[in-house]
Design a protein that fits this description.
Elements (H helix, E strand, L loop, with lengths): L1 H16 L6 H16 L1 H8 L16 H4 L10 H4 L3 H20 L5 H12 L4 H9 L2 H8 L6 H15 L5 H4 L4 H22 L1 H18 L7 H4 L3 H10 L2 H19 L1
Length: 266
């Protein structure tokens, strides 16, 4: 242990005293996790400086017909999911259902309603499946049929979000005619299709796409987010999180983040 710390301190001193040395940036980032582990994040920042936050938005894939028709893709066994204990999974799933209901419908769900949706997860259903069922039921359909126009703030967000993250152009005149709840659903469904395309082709690109999305939403709409992870504008932090969690957790964050931003603007 002491030998490792001595090596880390030696490397840290080298980085600190000779920052312009060729390849030193790479050495810094290789040694950073060990300094954080043994000496703490604050010490790592003092010695090495702030960690870089370089995550580029990958190319947005074209959505195949199979993905656009997918009701609940990604149904295979997720090894990351298996590592979560049953008790912890139940707690996380209930929090998700509670937040999902409020984010989609803009009202708090009562105990019976939340229990009904939670039971789907406890019986083996997926978070994406619960979301799709929730926005396709009679209650949400009623919200879509209700006269619920969108304002300029929502239009501004949509005209930024669709081209950047979905590679879909959208006209202001078209948006002015769209129901608010319909727009939220379409934006989310198209995003889930993009996630499925990445899952089928390149997971690293999914993590980067999610990271840029999360970082930019945190920066543009800081008042929307309450917990520390969502509030962070550091793309690298979001990418690291996405790489560690089950696929369904990434999807659930995409769902909730999109709905929350829309809700905050209308």
């Amino acid at each position: 242990m002491f030998k490792k710390i001595a090596i880390i301190i030696g490397l840290s001193f080298l980085c600190y005293s000779n920052p312009s040395h060729a390849g030193m940036a790479d050495i810094k980032e290789k040694v950073r996790p060990y300094i954080v582990k043994f000496l703490g994040a604050d010490t790592a920042t003092k010695i090495l400086g702030k960690a870089p936050d370089v995550v580029e938005l990958p190319e947005i894939p074209k959505v195949s017909k199979s993905a656009s028709k997918c009701v609940n893709c990604n149904t295979g066994v997720d090894e990351k999911e298996k590592k979560i204990s049953k008790d912890k999974k139940a707690k996380l799933d209930y929090v998700f259902v509670d937040e999902l209901y409020t984010s989609t419908r803009k009202v708090k769900g009562n105990k019976d309603e939340l229990s009904r949706w939670f039971s789907i997860l406890s019986q083996g259903g997926t978070r994406e499946g619960v979301y799709r069922a929730l926005v396709l039921d009679n209650t949400y359909r009623g919200l879509e049929n209700y006269d619920s126009p969108i304002n300029d703030s929502v239009i501004e967000f949509a005209t930024y979000f669709f081209p950047r993250f979905l590679n879909k152009s959208i006209k202001k005149k078209t948006l002015e005619k769209v129901n608010f709840y319909t727009l939220k659903r379409i934006a989310t469904e198209r995003s889930l299709e993009i996630v499925d395309e990445y899952l089928a082709s390149n997971r690293d690109n999914l993590y980067s796409w999610y990271a840029v999305l999360s970082g930019e939403l945190a920066e543009k709409y800081p008042d929307v987010w309450k917990n520390k992870i969502r509030k962070s504008s550091r793309k690298l932090s979001h990418r690291n999180w996405a790489a560690k969690v089950p696929d369904q957790h990434i999807k659930s964050e995409v769902i909730i983040k999109i709905h929350k931003v829309f809700n905050s603007l209308n």
